[in-house]
Write a structure and sequence with these properties.
Layout (H helix, E strand, L loop, with lengths): L12 E6 L21 E4 L5 E5 L2 E5 L33 H11 L3 E5 L16 H21 L4 E3 L1 E2 L5 H14 L4 E2 L18 H10 L3 E4 L20 H12 L3 H10 L2 H4 L5 E4 L6 H13 L13 H8 E5 L6 H8 L4 E3 L13 H9 L4 H16 L10
Parallel strand pairs: 1-5, 5-6, 7-8, 8-9, 9-10, 10-11, 11-12
Antiparallel strand pairs: 2-3, 3-4
Helix pairs in contact: 3-4
Length: 397
């Protein structure tokens, strides 16, 4: 597959892709006494492969991909019926993922999960704290193995045991020791009886991630209340495919509330080197939102925000990053508002809405009027800096 010539001098890094967890990810690494309790795939009463944890059915063990085994792409709700045996091996196999990346012209990919929610929020369904933590640790061990086996071309984000800040800090430090480059977590621990992320309770976590240089990644749909494709978002009269389109479109915007809360709670003021990534949310809405938050700050009574040293928009420019994939207009305004070093390219491979197989063609159209330095930033250099991803030296550099 030909790579657009404007990316000849770029090592492209795809900042949002997903792993269809192999069915033996946990069972092959489980201590003997936990082998029957940790996540494994068993047939349900209808014979459907299902993730089962400690005897409880968690979710269908589907393919979690819209790319079929032959490389063709399915659309709409058709992917619901695909099992792991039906989807392209690049969804779950390291070697096949690397081969696919080579075909598409992508040097490295950031990897996010499926089975326990896009922000790990579904870990809450595991009642046993010991089992819950072991599930996280084995996942992170597997992700570190993947990163090593891919020679740093697959860069998974570490899952966070978000239900206890001390446990979370310990796992952040362990994940960093394993070589993992960022943290993926839920946006809403308060929905599970914990303090919200703006409370001082979480200060040790922000301090640890700041000191270790690990960005916090908030993927869309990282809370139970956000992942609503077919519930209240689409009107009842719509068909399933139409509800999927409406729900997915609204899902992109859910991260706006998380970013606003991170600013107005003072987290970014207290931890000025902490970096936040809004994943799979797009960037076109961000200039408006930055202006909206500045405007709303100006509408508050004097003294209300004395604990902030800057307007809300300045925290965005200093500490918040976001990703684009299908957008072909509005990038110039986002770059002007957020800065060219805070926007990254993604494809969402192999999920619904992914731009496979022509993600680079769409990006080339969107970036054609920008100078080479800005293109390099968005398509790879920003992600390489943020996640400490090594890339080969460019010829002539």
């Amino acid at each position: 597959m030909a790579v657009p010539s404007i990316f000849d001098d770029v090592y492209v890094i795809d900042a949002d892709t997903h792993l269809t967890e192999p069915h033996d990810l946990w069972s092959s690494r489980a201590p003997a006494e936990f082998r029957e309790r940790l996540p494994r795939v068993l047939p349900d009463s209808n014979g459907t492969p299902t993730w089962v944890v400690d005897g409880v059915e968690l979710s269908k063990a589907g393919g979690a991909a819209v790319i079929k085994a032959d490389g063709s792409k399915v659309f709409g709700t058709q992917f619901f019926g695909l099992g792991i045996e039906d989807v392209h091996a690049g969804a779950y196999s390291i070697a096949d993922r690397i081969s696919t990346m080579d075909e598409l012209g992508v040097w490295a990919q950031i990897i996010y999960p499926n089975t326990f929610g896009l922000g790990g929020q579904t870990f809450a369904k595991l009642a046993d704290p010991e089992l819950r933590l072991l599930t996280v640790k084995i996942f992170n061990d597997a992700m570190a193995e993947m990163q090593d086996q891919s020679a740093d071309r697959l860069v998974p984000m570490a899952a966070l045991p978000w239900w206890d800040v001390d446990v979370a800090v310990a796992e952040v430090e362990r994940a960093h020791g394993l070589g993992l480059r960022g943290i993926n977590t839920t946006t809403a621990p308060h929905q599970h009886g914990l303090p919200d992320l703006g409370e001082p309770y979480w200060n040790p976590l922000w301090a640890a991630c700041s000191s270790l240089g690990l960005p916090i990644n908030f993927h869309i749909g990282a809370a139970e209340s956000d992942i609503d494709w077919f519930g209240t978002v689409g009107w009842p009269s719509l068909g399933l495919d139409q509800k999927l389109a409406v729900g997915s479109g609204m899902l992109y915007l859910n991260n706006a509330s998380c970013l606003a809360n991170m600013v107005f709670s003072g987290v970014l003021e207290r931890f000025p080197t902490l970096q936040i990534v809004s994943v799979e949310s797009g960037v076109g809405w961000i200039p408006f939102f930055m202006q909206a938050l500045d405007h709303q700050a100006g509408e508050l009574p004097p003294g209300t925000l004395d604990y902030l040293s800057m307007p809300p928009s300045e925290y965005f420019r200093r500490q918040i990053h976001a990703c684009f994939w299908f957008e072909r207009t509005g990038l110039a305004a986002a770059i002007d508002a957020l800065g060219s070093e805070h926007i990254m390219f993604e494809t969402d491979y192999p999920h619904p809405t992914c731009t496979y197989p022509n993600g680079l063609d769409l990006a080339a159209e969107a970036l054609s009027g920008l100078e080479p330095r800005v293109r390099r930033n968005l398509m790879g250099d920003n992600a390489a800096r943020l996640y400490h991803i090594p890339t080969p030296e460019r010829s002539g550099s």
